[in-house]
Amino acid sequence: MLGLHRRSVLAGTLALAACGRTAGAPAEVAGGREIPMAHAKTFKVRERDGYRIVDVEASVVAWGGSAGGPPQRARLVLVPKTMTAPPLTGDLAGATLIRTPVARIAVNDQPQEAIIRALGVTSQLVAVGGHNSYDDGIRARVKSGQLQQVGYGWHQPPTLDALVAARPDVFIARMADLTHTQHMERVKALGIPVVPTFIDAEPHYMGRVDWVRLVGLMTGREREADAFVAEVTREVDRWKALAAAQPKRSMLWAWYLSAGDRWSVTQRNGDAALIRDANAEVVMGAPDDPELDAFSRLSTEQLLQGGTDADCWMIRDPLSNPFTNRTVLERFKAYREGAVYWQHGLKNPNADCWEIWEMGSIRPDWVLADVAKMVHPRSATGRCATTPSRPGRAAMPVRVTTSSLLLFAALAALSLYVLAYGQIAIPLGEAVAALTGSGSDALSAQIVREIRLPRVMAAVLAGGALGVGGVLMQALFRNPVADGWSLGLLAGGQLGVALTVTAAAFAGPAAVSFLTVFAGPSITLAAAGGVALAAATMLMLGRRLGAITLLVVGLMLGFTAQGLTSVLLHFAARAGGRIYGGWSDASFAGVQPQNLPWLAVPIVLGLVLAVATAKPLSSLLLGENYAQSLGVRVGALRRLALTATVLLVAPVVAFCGPVSFIGLIVPHFARALAGSARILPLIPIAALGGALLALAGDAIVHAPWEQHFLHLNAILAIVGAPVVILLLVFSPALRGWR
Predict the structure, then answer these.
(1) For residue 632, what is the DSSP state?
(2) Residues of the chain above pLDDT 90, percent
(3) Helix orientation angle between 205-219 and 222-244, rounded to the nearest 10 degrees
(4) Can you tell me the distance from the alpha carbon of 209 to that of 214, in angstroms, rounded to the nearest whole number?
(5) Which one-letter DSSP state was computed for residue 584?
(6) What is the per-residue pLDDT for 13?
């Protein structure tokens, strides 16, 4: 949809195979009537004798440059399967015959997938570029082997063996280099009709939408295509009218390439038209020219010369490199006023799905809406403009609600199981009666209410706190392997408590008595201090170190703190240090009923603070500059998020010990269930998921294993360690967080 994809016009080189010549115009089509296309300039359609003739013509424009050589041309003949195909002679000589409606379709890039999806014929896909699709269904079919992967046109020529194995009726292709032409000639020689696409060669953004109509002619979905184009047109007209009612402003659309101190600056053609239709001046604009790409490569000096007065600045796409010269940035009005926006478009980070590069190609109304809201963030009444509905947006709250309800139901069922079954089996009905105080068995009531219920409550509170704490830490450190254990926060909390116990031991019996009487607040504060110090240290180091290095440093600091804890508790043993000596194993069984409030209150406060910081913390995932452009005070946000983390982790360390892996693995499952990386939707799922995992581990530990006693962290490690290994081995999960 954007100038970034202008390179796709190289698909025109397919015309070399279709016409047998490089530039000469084919013979004029005799007779028939033209089927009007409201916006397209790169293809024309004529109907003659019951079939359609499509002429495609466009220049090959280099990315960020100019056209190379004369225009490229191709002629397609779309003949219904119910009629005899005309001879490919005369004005049809050299044309590509396509029998319609096609039933088996292969594509090699994302915009072509978007067209297929818009027409509702994804079930007819037999091959796609790869598995990095915006469409969840297509991606699942690729990974299961139902769809062949023929290689993205943006990166490589088609993989011929996969294409042949797919047996498509038509290959809707995009090329990225002239050298790929020979591969397309081989495709045609194998009997597979090839349709070159010139979507991004269209001089106006609405021309891209008409390509849906062309594919609709091939698939027998003309009515659906016409309805789609009409819908997009209505939305474009609506947003143009909304923008026209606002005062005209100016917009700079540029991103930093870094190589050779170059910026890519949108100046002309379809992308510039989007800015103009949003009632804004194209800063550093230039006359439209179909022989040039929509953007040009300019130096920082040129950007300073012409772009400093722009009211709004859009960083074009996720390929932008960071520009860190703050002195230069301060020269720009948009930067000083916090009006810098990142056109991200990443719907599902874990699947590498770029909405803006797929649906955005044929939904310029979405892009126009985004541009209009960037330029005119508020209407004259001070109320934010509304946005048209988009696929997947409304589905996320449903996913979060459904996932939360299912997790809650599982947690309730598991809680009843833990209350009823253990070393001593208690009938489920008797366990429920014991909870309500209506049971007749005094022993069962005592076991359920005084032993198992506090353990269940401790597991639920601690697991939920660690799950949400992991979400905060992974966002705060922008590291997918960050949690209280891997960053040394748990060990820091242990060390804080050990220092307190040791100090009381050497201070004398009075101090030990005081610590015993006020164990709840004393231990909680001591653990909080240790966790806060460890977290602050890692946050400071995290600005200098990469994801893997930070993990190693966190582990080393954690081991150091654990060693010091062991030494301190050794010397404090006679004064009561033995009470805390079993921490290395972690357990929920040691939480006494009177200490539950000291466990619960800080955790509840931490959850409240986590919800309060969720929205600005989500913006920090996209980088400090992006967050600052939205008005986020990054320093204050970090302090608040750090406070929330301490409130969540410290009481767990104080009363349950260093419970490992929950904070690491739960956030990843939460993101998968929520279908989002945003913080707020993750909080309820992470809280319930962490509670469920903690209680499941406790249930295994306290199952009737005869004389065998399992350790909680050993159980959690069996689940958590493979997750860490997978995250470290498959580096894309780490690259997205750097």
Answers:
(1) -
(2) 31
(3) 160
(4) 10
(5) G
(6) 33
Residue 209 CA to residue 364 CA, distance in Å, equals: 8
Whether the predicted pLDDT of 1 surpasses 80: no
C-alpha–C-alpha distance, residues 711 and 709, integer Å? 7
Taking residues 651-660, what's their average pLDDT?
Answer: 82
The pLDDT, as a whole number, for residue 548 is 65
Q: Give the whole-angstrom CA distance, residue 590 versus residue 583.
A: 10
574: which 2 tokens? 């006679």
Query: Span 101-124, mean pLDDT?
Result: 93
Report the alpha-carbon distance of residue 456 to residue 89 in Å, rounded.
81
Transcribe 184-217 into DSSP letters: HHHHHHTT--EEE--GGG-SSHHHHHHHHHHHHH
| Cβ count within 10 A of residue 139 | 20
pLDDT, tens digit, for every residue of 378-403?
633 333 333 333 333 444 567 788 88
pLDDT value, residue 494:
77
Residue recorded with tokens 């932008």: 320
The letter for the amino acid at 597 is P
Task: Give me the sign of the Cα torsion angle 636, 637, 639, 640.
Answer: positive
Cβ neighbors of 499 (< 8 A, separation 6 or more) are: 526, 530, 568
Q: Cα-atom radius of gyration of the chain, to the nearest Å?
A: 31
Please tell me the number of Cα atoms within 13 Å of 306 on its side-chain side: 19
Per-residue pLDDT of 38-95, as tens digits, reads: 899 999 999 999 999 999 888 767 777 777 667 778 899 999 999 999 999 999 998 9
Measured distance CA(455)–CA(459) in Å, rounded? 6
CA 522 from chain centre, in angstroms, equals 42
Burial of residue 245 (number of CB atoms within 10 Å: 0-12, 13-18, 19+): exposed
3-class SS of residue 130: coil
Instruction: Report how far residue 418's alpha carbon sits from residue 425's, in angstroms, rounded to the nearest whole number.
Output: 10
As a residue count, the chain comes to 738
Token pair, residue 5, equals 């994809």
Amino acid (1-letter code) at residue 629: S
**Token pair of 695, please?**
């209680």
**What pLDDT sits at residue 274?**
93
Which two tokens mark 257? 């390439």
Q: Give 72's strand partners.
A: 58
d(CA 176, CA 156): 7
Q: What phi, psi does 297 have (nearest 5°)?
A: -95, 120
What does the alpha-carbon distance between residue 348 and residue 345 come to, in Å, rounded to a whole number?
9
What is the reported pLDDT for 652?
87
250 bridge partner residues:
281
What is the rounded CA–CA span in Å between residue 119 and residue 221? 7
685-699 tens-digit pLDDT? 999 999 999 999 988
Lowest mean pLDDT among 292-306, 341-355, 611-625: 341-355
Question: 664 near 432, Cβ under 8 Å?
Answer: no
Alpha-carbon dihedral angle through residues 276, 280, 282, 286, given to the nearest 10 degrees: 40
- Give percent above pLDDT 70 in the chain: 80
Sign of CA dihedral 650, 646, 736, 548: negative
Tokens of residue 333, six digits: 């009005």
Whether omega before 101 lies within 30 degrees of 0, making that bond cis, reads yes
32 secondary structure, DSSP code: S
Q: Are 467 and 663 in contact (CB under 8 A)?
A: yes
- CA–CA gap between residue 685 and residue 695 (Å, rounded): 15
First-to-last alpha carbon distance for the chain, in angstroms, is: 27
Burial of 436 (0-12, 13-18, 19+ CB in 10 A): exposed
CA angle at residue 174 from 195 to 225, to 5 degrees? 60
pTM exceeds cut of 0.70: no
- SS3 string, 167-188, reads CCCEEEECCCCHHHHHHHHHHH
Distance CA 216, CA 201 (A): 19
